[in-house]
Each structure stands twice: as structure tokens, then as C-alpha cells.
Amino acid sequence: MHIYIIKRLLQAIPVILLVTVITFSLIHLMPGDPAIMRAGEDATLEQVEQIREAMGLNEPIPAQYLNWMSGLVRGDLGESLQDGRPVFTTLMQRLPATLYLVLASFVVSLAIGIPVGILSAVRQNTFIDTFARGFALLGISMPSFWFGLMLVLLFSYRLQWLPASGAGSFQQLIMPALALGMASAGLITRMTRSSMLEVLKQDYIRTARSKGLRAQIVIYKHALKNAMLPVVTVIGLQLGYRLGGSVIVEQIFAYPGIGRFAYTRLLARDFPMIMGNLFIFAMIFIIVNILTDIVYGFLEPRIRYD
Amino acid sequence: MTVKDAKVSSEIGAPIKTSTSFRDDAIRRFKKNPTAIIGLIIAIVFVLIAIFGRYITPHDPFAQNIVNSHQAPSAEHWLGTDFFGRDVLSRIIVGARISLLVGISVITIRAAIGIPYGLIAGYYGGKVEMVMMRIVDAVISFPGIILAMAIMAVRGQGIENVILALSITGWPMFARLVRGEAMSLKEREYVQASRALGYNDGKIMFQHILPNCLATIIVYATMGIATPILAEAGLSFLGLGATAEQATWGFQMSIERQYLRYAWWSVTFPGMAVMIVVLGFNLLGDGLRDVLDPRMKE
User: Fold this and answer.
1) Residue A4 lies in a domain
2) Rounded mean pLDDT of A93-103?
3) Shortest Cα distance from A142 to chain B (angstroms)?
4) Does A144 sit within 8 Å of B143, measured CB to CB?
5) For the purposes of burial, counting CB atoms within 10 Å of the CB of A232, is it exposed (0-12), middle (13-18) or buried (19 or more)?
6) Residue B65 and residue B84 in contact, taking contact as beta carbons nearer than 8 Å
7) In a domain, B2, yes or no
8) Range of B201's domain?
9) For a disulfide at A77, which of A87, B82, B102, B107, Cβ 3.0-4.6 Å?
């Protein structure tokens, strides 16, 4: 197991390096002069030149990359072009709200997806199954922002049960979490269903049944445990979609997270902020996927000998 | 005697028409699959609307008439009108074209990059594969939509840039899929045999391994058309996708969103159009999977 974890960690190092290269080169393809952006519309040529010098933009690209990297390893992602504030701190201030939202959306998709998926598998080819499969398909086919707007229309404008925007209270979290979690709820329903059907065909389930165990125990104790394995891997991969989806969903609900912030800074071409944001999102994704793989290694010992 | 000759003679030698071919069998299974049929019908209707859209709109989709602003659905305007008094149904009909264009071209470009990439990685294995797959891992680490947004911010609005941005961010999934297939297929006897016959690697990869991954690729690509359609809607909704002249469904929702409280129809129906099209391709993909790739069957 130790070897498996160490191997997995070593694998991540080149990926992280490549992530920094992609982040850096993407931003340096951008048209527009960071120095002019920072100096403002009315700045003189000398002022712009001064800033360009101070920001190290006159240096060759590889040197700039190394400068950025040397900051990075010290946890310094540079300063915003817009307000001069440190990128890392600014982003970290907004990250918790988004992680909170992402977590809530996972609760939504697991709380819907797993039970509906089990029910669908246990009652295969019945009306319940058809209904559950239809629901799952609708979930993955809806644009999340449209679903969010429909929720606002119904629960805020018509019924006036929930506030249409903002953050802080539980009521304000319900609709964004639903909007962000619905697509995965559909996906997890489908995965749980197919993986349950697979497991229910196995010999050990037949053995358990023929021993005279109650159906409930067979399903929840014997089958579910093994059926959850593929679902675990999906959760890690889903995180990327959630962080991306947060940009749109936060925009709709005026939710003060990192996604909405990233969007405004993207429009303003605040380069260091965009780079920092891309890097932090990619790092979160990499770390969570290492953790998922390790959990998977514990749950499924065969994988460790891969 | 070459491998090809051997195949022909065995076909001649085999009793004809007593066993159904894979193709006949697949078509038969497809016809018996109601979800696949529904998906196919939705996809065909969508393609027809995309092609003939401009000739079948009940009203001029771009003619502004502020007197008609935000009319509720009626016999004259089935799905109501938007803020500028334009017919929502007509605008949905003309929006189909770009949606389909984005879906198909993005999936084609993703496949064109991802398939050879995955074949090479899976076939050669070892260090080549390791380096190639770490690059894939790195691209996948970024949330696709944010990477696409950053590219859109670099290149500016417009549908060509949407296609570029979504193609760049989406190809690694194809690469992973094909690599997995190539890895298992390269151990098969017929691949070993072609290697023993001295075929070069390119020929083995593209003529012997690729045809045997095609079923999986077709299933994945059909379902995959849905993803760029959804992503384009999202980007255009955020104002980082289509331009006003390219009035896509996402763009329509983006400008009408502020009137949602008073005029629900001008946002609801374009979104429903996205949903139905995406649903159609998902159903078709599910159906094709059951038919072409029974291994993957639920």
C-alpha cells in the first residue's frame, strides 16, 4: 500500500510541472500589454515602461517563467494588475465559499443519485426503473445555468420561498447547490444503477440469497458496498466539472465565491489573477484525485498491484 | 497467400445467408430499441431544422418591433416574443444551426487529435506512453470550461473561437479512451500476426487496431456531441461565446435573462431546446452502445 501511495505521488510531480507550463504559456498568448493594463488609461509612456521593468516583462519568456515558478514554490502567485493585492491571499479568501457550495452540491447529487440508482436497479424494468432512468437522463441533459434560472423563476419569483441571490444562509445555498449538483445526480444515478445490476448478478449475492438472508441485507450490506467502487472514482473526476460549473452558477445567484470572482477578472484581463486561479483549480483537482485513488486502493486491493 | 486472400476465400467457403452478419444483427437490435429510435428521431429533426431553419421560420427572427415586446405565447407567436419583439420560436429555429455546427466540428477535431494520440500511446507503451499520458493528465486537471473561458478571453468572441477553445480542452478524453482500447487490442493474435508479417507500426495501428475500436469511438462521439453543445450554451450565456449576429440559444438566454421575472418564455424555451437536443444525442448514444458495443451494456 505504501508503495502504491508513493508511486501515485511521484506520478503527480510531472503533471504539476506541466500544469504550470500550460498556465504560463496560455496567459502569454494573450494579446494586450499587462503593463498598460496596470498603469491605467492616462499613464505616460515612462510610467508604463517603469511598470514593465518592475514586473519583469522585459525579460525573456523563459526567465519570466522561472521567476513565476520561484514565486510559486514560496506560495507567492504575484500581485493583481487591477488592485495590486496579492493573488494568493485574494483567491484564498474567496475559495472557502466555493468549496462550501461544491460540497453542498455533492451532498445533493449523492443524496439523490445513490438511492434513486439503487431503487432503479432493484426494480429493474419496472415503472420505477423507467422513471428513474428518465430522471437521470434529464439531469445530465440540462444546462446547469438554465436549471438554476428555472429554480429562481419557480421558488423566488413565483412561490417566493427562497431568496434569488446572495450567500450566508442555508436558504441561499439550496438553489445554487441544486443547480450545480443536478447533472452529477443524473450521472451518479446511472452509475449506481449499472454497477448495482452488475454486482447483483454475482455468485456471492446468489449465495447470500440462498442462505435465506433478507433482501434488504443482501442489497445494502453485500451489494451496495461493492457497487459503490466505480462511484468513488467518478466523484474525484466530477470535482473538475464542479469547479468549472461554479463560475456559471455563482454568476446566476450572485454567490460571492471564487468562480464569480474569476469571471470578472477574466473579463478585465487581470493576468496574474487568472494564472493563479487556473493553477489553484488544477492543484485542487490533482490533490483530490490522488486522495480518491488512495481511497480506491484501500477499498479495492487488486488495484494496488497494477 | 496474404491475409486478405485468406479472408475472402473463407467468406466464399462459408455457407451464405444462414448466419446474420454483425451489421444486420446490429440494425435488428437497433430497431428493437425504443430509446435509440427516439434519440435518432430527435437528432434527425434537429439536423433538418439546422439545414432548412431559415426557410421554415414563421416570422423573421431578426426583425425588431418594440411594440410587440415580450408578448406571451399566443396563436400568433407560439413561444412568445423577446424584448425586441422578435419571435422566440423563429429565433430558436435559426439558433439550431450554430449549435449543431459547434457540436459536430468540436467532436470531429477532438477525435482527430485524440484518436491518433491515444493509438500511439497505447500501442507503443513504455516511456512514450508515460510522457504522453502525463500531458493528458495535466490538460484534464483544468476545469474545461474555465480553460475555454481563458482562451475566449485571449481570442475574443465568435463561434470559430468557441470551436477552437472547446476542441483544445476536450481531446484528452478521446485519447484516454483509445489508449485503453489500443492497449488491450495490441496483445491480440491478429495484431501479433500482422507484426510477424512485417507490417509497419502505422499500418498496424490504423488498419488493424483502429477499426476494432470504432464501435467504442462511435458510441463515445455520439454521446460526446452533447458536451460541446452544452458548453457553447454556457460560454455564450456568460458573454464569452457567440456574437449578437450569431444569436445562439445560449446568447438568447443571456440577453433575456434580466426579464425572467416578467417574461419567462424567452429564457425557458431556448434552454428547453438545448435540453431536448442534448437528450436526443444522449439517447442515441445509449442506444448505439447497446447495439454496437454489447460489452458496455448496463
Assistant:
1) no
2) 91
3) 5
4) no
5) middle
6) yes
7) no
8) 39-53+81-296
9) A87
Paired with A79 in beta bridges are: A86
pLDDT tens readout for residues B188-225: 888 888 888 888 888 888 888 888 888 889 888 988 89
Distance from C-alpha of B195 to C-alpha of B75, rounded to nearest angstrom:
68
Residue B231, min C-alpha distance to chain A (Å):
8
d(CA B220, CA B211): 15
The pLDDT score that the predictor gives to residue B203 is: 85
For B27, the grid coordinates are 440494425
Inter-chain CB proximity B234 and A248 less than 8 Å: yes
Instruction: Let me know if residue A300 belongs to a domain.
Output: no
Q: Is B15 helix (H, G, I), strand (E, B) or coil?
A: coil
Residue pair B109/B135 in contact by the 8 Å Cβ criterion:
no
Would the pLDDT of B19 be above 70? no
Number of domains in chain B: 1
Tell me the nearest-neighbour CA distance from A267 into chain B, angstroms: 7
Q: Which residues, including other chains, have CB under 8 Å from residue B214's CB and lie 6 or more apart?
A: none
What residues 163-202 of chain A have any CB closer than 8 A to a CB of chain B? 190, 193-194, 197
Residues 6+ apart with CB under 8 A from A66: none
Total number of residues shown for chain A: 306
Show Cβ contacts of residue A31 under 8 Å, excluding neighbours closer than 6 positions. Answer: B154
CATH of the domain at A119: 1.10.3720.10
CA distance A146 to chain B (A): 6
A86, β-bridge pairs? A79
Interface A-B, measured as beta-carbon pairs within 8 A, has a size of: 131
Please report whether residue A25 resides in a domain: no
For residue A62, is pLDDT > 70? yes
Number of folded domains that form chain A: 1
Query: Taking an 8 Å Cβ-Cβ cutoff, which residues of chain B contact chain A?
Result: 134-135, 137-147, 149-151, 153-154, 226, 230, 233-234, 237-238, 240, 250, 253, 257, 260-261, 264, 267-268, 271, 274-276, 278-279, 282-283, 298
Evaluate whether B264 touches B257 at the Cβ level (below 8 Å).
no
Does the residue A27 lie in any domain?
Answer: no
Which residues 240-279 in chain A show a CB within 8 A of chain B?
A: 240-241, 243-245, 247-248, 251, 262-263, 266-267, 269, 274, 277-278
Q: How confident is the model over A223-228, as a mean pLDDT?
A: 78
* Of residues B137, B139, B271, nearest to A146 (C-beta): B271
Rounded distance, CA B235 to CA B228, Å? 10
Q: Judge whether residue B36 has pLDDT over 50.
A: yes
| Cα–Cα distance list, A219 to A118, A191, A213 (Å) | 9, 16, 10
Q: Is the ipTM of this complex over 0.90?
A: no
Contact A152/B267, CB-based, under 8 Å? no
Residue B281: give its domain's CATH number.
1.10.3720.10
Q: Is residue B11 assigned to a domain?
A: no
